Amino acid sequence: MTRPLHAPSWYEILGLPRDASAAEVRRAHRELIAELDKEAGTDAPVPKGDDKPSGAGKSEPKTGKSESKTGEPKTGKSESKTGEPKTGRSKESREGTGGERRKRRAEADAAFAVLRDPALRREHDMVLDGDFSFLDASQADPDLAGRSVDTCSLCGAGPVAEASLLRVTGAVLLWKRTRADAPLCRGCGLAVYRSFQDHSLKAGWWGVAAVFYNAWATLQNLVSGRTYSRLDDPESPEIEPAPSPSPLDPSPPLVRRSGPWFSGGLAAALLVVLV
After folding, report:
1. Which of 25, 27, 63, 121 to pair with 254, CA 20 to 30 A apart?
2. What is the pLDDT of residues 80-107, one digit of tens each?
């Protein structure tokens, strides 16, 4: 299975296998939210002024110096049982933990939203398999129409560009084509470009007419890939339900894939035969 993700999949966020049922998705989401709420309760600061034990309404007459239970004068710093000063959790530490917990909760809610929606879940499964055919406008799911053109169609990040990418499979007389013409961020755009171009360079030459169409398609892909490479690195200010939980990992580069080498070898063999 191809898995071109930087971050865990929506399934992994909820700790589920890909064949999980709708009931298992609901249960996993509910349990994760309960766990995060429990963690939030343990990190809550101790209230001041209202935590006196019962019977503590009257105090002993105050002397000039306060003393501990052992009769020793108290110092300005409280000490732990080992004699070391207590440090406690700083406010910054609690806020950092709270921010991480809010992020995990947002991821859990987004994962639940994707996996309970049949159309979004199907697209997420296709991304995990390296199949981006749903980006073809002619094959788009009508249930997901009306998506924003300002964010990436795969991960919801930005900035984006919209350039045509073609994936060609040759046949004896004609060819099969898949087109991606949706707005994509830099990471997702390069990942789809390299996937489509690698396939076309291996499978697009098999046919009389396909040779000419594939030659044009590979040139078109080069121009589109250049467009995506010029974009800034993607940023996603909020975690939203999307086919991918993060921008796709475009590695490895095209020169380290088999497509360009296969096409080069095929061209060299053809040249030897003709000469």
Report:
1. 121
2. 444 544 545 555 555 557 778 888 999 9
Lowest mean pLDDT among 114-123, 171-180, 248-257: 171-180
* Nearest CA-CA partner of 120 in 139, 135, 141, 137: 141
Q: How does pLDDT run across 48-74, given as a tens digit for each residue?
A: 544 444 444 444 444 444 444 445 555
Label each residue of the chain as H, E or C. Answer: CCCCECCCCHHHHHCCCCCCCHHHHHHHHHHHHHHHHHHHHHCCCCCCCCCCCCCCCCCCCCCCCCECCCCCECCCCCECCCCCECCCCCHHHHHHHHHHHHHHHHHHHHHHHHHCCHHHHHHHHHHHCCCCHHHCHHHCCHHHCCCCCCCCCCCCCECCECCCEEEEEECCCCEEEEEECCCECHHHHHHHHHHHHHHHHHHCCCCHHHHHHHHHHHHHHHHHHHHHHCCCCCECCCCCCCCCCCCECCCCCHHHCHHHHHHHHHHHHHHHHHC
Task: Give the range among 145-149, 186-190, 218-222 with minimum mean pLDDT.
Answer: 145-149
Each as own residue / partner, the long-range contacts of residues 10-13 (CB below 8 Å, 24 or more positions apart, any chain) are 10/110, 10/111, 10/114, 10/115, 10/124, 10/245, 11/111, 11/115, 13/107, 13/108, 13/111, 13/245
The structure tokens listed for 110 are 């987004």
CA gyration radius, the chain: 29
Distance CA 121, CA 111 (A): 9
Q: Which pLDDT belongs to residue 139?
A: 60
